[in-house]
Structures
1.
Amino acid sequence: MKILVAHNRYQQAGGEDMVVAEEVRMLQQRGHLVRQYTVNNDGITNVWQQAVAAARFFYSVQASREISNLLASIQPDILHVHNFFPSISPAIFFAARKYGVPVVQTLHNYRLLCANATLFRDGQPCEDCIIQRSFVPGVRHACYRGSRAGSAIVGASTSVQAALGTWSNRIDRYIALTQFAAQKLGSYRIPSNKIRIKPNFVPDRGYGEGQGGFALYVGRLSPEKGVETILAADRLGSLPLPVHIAGDGPLLAEIERACARPGSRLIYLGRMPRSQVAEQMKCATVLLVPSLWYEGFPMAMVEALSFGLPIIASRIGGLPEIVQDGHSGLLFEPGNPSAMLQALGSFVSDTSRIEAMREAGRNQFELHYTEQKNYDMLIGIYNELLD
């Protein structure tokens, strides 16, 4: 099978970029011919460039020309699009229709419904644009990079493309990462009958030891990730074990101040390469995922399950589909440091249950999140269109 993969990389590589790289490797190792069309956002560094990029989101002539040349020369069986914002633009879907190539679009976030792609505003989930069936609330609140003009451009673009039938007619299958995301995305603009669920995966790198005696947070240091819940829990002075924090982001300075506070049990590790994160996971006692937004499918969580690392996570969005409460981990009320402390205390108080959770998490990984399981699901989606 010949597959053309299109992806607009992020300025700071994250989980989505990792997913694309792993899927490409997985397909290539199983004998498929995979070509990639990638662009990046490195040139978007100031307000003017952000505005130009947002405007290009309507339709990029350059991307249309480049993707058309690839479609004509490669003649792929499938065009698989991951992130097309902002530089690739919906032009890619028009080109694919012209050449008769079926399109699969993975929905890693909520960009088609929300200007900032997260359905998150002012510290909590926000669905105003879905409820009102309008992009105006996003403009009012300057949801795209704090700019009303940029928010208007992004919102108008997705609305115009909806009116043109791009989301309903020019994309043949959508991939959502969880049942929650599928329901949310299928409630507005996206035909629910075209959505298939395929989670993320990681290669199997064996079982961890879990003897390090610390909790671990891995991810972007930003408000929607809920890392401030960990800081608040530390200030309460009842953390039952140290918490290692790995990552980078806008809350870095606040994290460093919190770690330097006398009596703090927080240890900042910095931004770490994936290999070092894996070593931390193999040693950690539990992974903390205190998210406040509707996460897609955090790579840290599937990696944790692969190592048999239990997870304590917020009860929000699709996270309860990943963490089997009481089996492979525990859930707590998002944004509530006392609830997180209670979950942590309950977890560490029973060593026999910790081992049972480790085994349950590893079994969950083997049943649902291995590379082969993921390959079978992905090829099944492709074959739906080819058949």
2.
Amino acid sequence: MPRNENMDIKWHVLNYIAPTPAHRDKPECIVEQFNRSDETGCLELFAPTFVEMTQRDGKWKRKETPLLFHYVFVRGTEGDVKDLCSRPNGFSLIINHTGTTRYATVSDSDMEAFKTIARFYGNMTIPCFSTEEIDLEEGDRVEVAVGPFAGLTGAYISRKGSRNGNILISVTGALAAVVYDIKAEYVKVLQFAKDTKRAYDQIESFIPRLFAALRDWDNGKVTTQSITPLVIFNRRMESVTLRNDKLDAKLQILLMTSAIILGDTQSKEKAAERFKKLSHTITNPVTAALAILLQAIVSRDRQQLIKGYDLLTETEKLKSAFHATLLAEYRHYIDTSDKWVKP
């Protein structure tokens, strides 16, 4: 019988100590290579990280650092995991001295709970944001994180093209305000402007970023780059008051989904409660299909996924670029949802 016909698939706790500097902190590359080289290889890796700022050659960069030092988690059959560890790649099994199994393992339910905690911890430690990753809005209070103007604090002033590096910051002193036109690669957002003036644009531009983060999350490969827009969007928009219930309902389902990816249970429950109150206001079939898709993915509900896809394919009169994008997302998850395990 081939190894992977054995249905005893578990999360195994492994040591990972890179054998050479070239492979340091890249266990995911080794697992991907194993899966490609082995006909029955279908291992899944979870190696949580947090973000820190490091300086190299006079430049500051964000670096993802292992959250648990040299411990990682690999899901698969014992045979596949043993095969992985038998190769000269830095992985090794951990003997279980207290349980009934020979090797240390974690149940799927315990692993999901730990993933939530690890994501929340990792996401909350992002110290600063690249100006190319986030949409600053006029009135946001920011602090320049690195460079000649590091520590400069003031209110961001909107200017077309500011995401390319240079931003305008107004610093108010005792007698006057001085505007600095500076290059700022990384900034800390100290306080968002009280009222966003372009909520609709913020919501629409966020959806593709959420789709990208969802695919990473669904594959167990959430990265700093994919969740940074989610952190900023949730922090900015969770306190925004909208006078349009339909738009507010759309906002809440986006907030709820991104909070789940971030592992922020409190924000998720708050958004879910408000969405429940407003969901009846959604009359546009495409928006309804979007809401169904997001709920189906995070709840691992394939039947709901099919329901949303059927609704979307019936809306012939509302075809648009977003309609096509949404269809592509549905087809992707329909093709890959056979791997889903109910949370």
